[in-house]
Specification:
The chain has 340 residues and is α+β, with helices and mostly antiparallel strands. It is 41% helix and 21% strand. One of its GO terms (molecular function) is oxidoreductase activity.
Length: 340
């Protein structure tokens, strides 16, 4: 680990193994056991390697400060099931742990029956959704993860929040790297807002309003007000659909009737042989990549291409985070030690 200056911002550099070791040292301070630490660290490291700094090491600060982190928690458990479905009470565990259980249930049921749907409630903060659907795609399954979260997004024309950032993610097996599609339905994601706020920065114009509905670039004013949808009514419509799927996942059973995670896994050979599906989707993607380009465009980039390339590069070269974020993580551990 060492530091360097990047455009006036001091950065801390880590190898991939060094970042994992740092997480192994920090996460137990938050009450996570060895197995839980490994599950969470794997998720955060993957996000960092894929280029999503705000979902990497800095997200530990979000884990520590989340209001639900201070409440008692129990292991996730199945509350209702059929051969192709399971409804899981997350036990107020962080979503990275609850979704780990959900993924295993989905893979097992889909492998046996061709299809699985798993809902998770009473959990919070899953991190990057592509991480989960990639696991399904790697198992030869088509995966979808729909998320409904706490209200921080204002519908078009509203001056107060009514739905969550509500991301949707898909994973598709191909003959090579899986095709991963992961997008929030808000104009800005809460984890990214948190990172900007901790760095003392400003939001881009047009992504948030304050508590009385005026546009704002101040992160704290946005927290007190609302984030906006992406693409106006289109983003709102998709976000509302995620909210509806969250209800199916049991969000109304969560203490604040907020978080609901719906995971769907399908075997392609319900309709076409898996290897045919892989080949035909790969051919489709190759055709899209070969589309004639506009002047000045070097490549037609598909969803997840950049992230997967970054993961390979950063796996070899390492990652970096803002030095102030690293200092906040160290202070977090120190403060917890002093109170124990």
């Amino acid at each position: 680990m060492h530091s360097h200056d990047d455009a006036g911002t001091e950065r801390m550099d880590f190898t991939a193994d060094g970042a994992r070791r740092a997480m192994r040292e920090i996460l137990p301070h938050l009450g996570y056991d060895t197995n839980e630490t490994e599950i969470i660290a794997d998720q955060l490291l993957d996000a960092a390697l894929c280029g999503y700094e705000y979902s990497g090491l800095p997200k530990i600060l979000d884990l520590a400060s989340h209001p639900k982190a201070a409440l008692p928690r129990t292991a996730p458990r199945i509350q209702h099931e059929t051969p192709v479905s399971a409804l899981i009470d997350g036990g107020n565990t962080v979503g990275m742990l609850a979704l780990h259980t959900a993924i295993e249930e989905a893979k097992k049921r889909a492998a046996q029956h061709g299809f699985a749907v798993v809902g998770v409630y009473n959990s919070w903060m899953t991190g990057r959704s592509a991480y989960f659907v990639e696991q399904l795609a790697d198992a030869g399954l088509i995966g979808m993860l729909a998320v409904s979260s706490f209200s921080i997004v204002a519908p078009p024309g509203a001056a107060a929040p009514a739905i969550g950032t509500n991301p949707i993610a898909f994973g598709f097996p191909t003959a090579a790297d899986p095709l991963l599609i992961d997008l929030g339905t808000s104009a800005y994601m809460v984890s990214e807002l948190s990172l900007v706020q901790r760095r003392g920065g400003s939001l881009p114009p047009g992504v948030a309003i304050d508590r009385i509905g005026n546009p704002t670039c101040d992160p704290q004013s946005a927290r007190e007000g609302s984030i906006l949808n992406f693409a106006g009514y289109r983003g709102f419509a998709i976000g509302l659909a995620m909210q509806a799927l969250g209800v199916m996942a049991g969000s109304a059973l969560s203490p604040n009737k907020d978080y609901g995670y719906l995971l769907v896994a399908m075997r392609p050979d319900l309709l076409v042989p898996l290897e045919d599906y892989r080949r035909q989707l790969s051919e489709t993607l190759a055709r899209i990549k070969a589309t004639p380009k506009q002047e000045g465009v070097s490549d037609i980039r598909l969803p997840s291409e950049r992230a997967l390339a970054e993961r390979r590069r950063r796996g070899a070269e390492g990652i970096s985070i803002d030095k102030h974020i690293w200092q906040q993580l160290q202070a977090l551990c120190h403060n917890i030690e002093e109170t124990q």
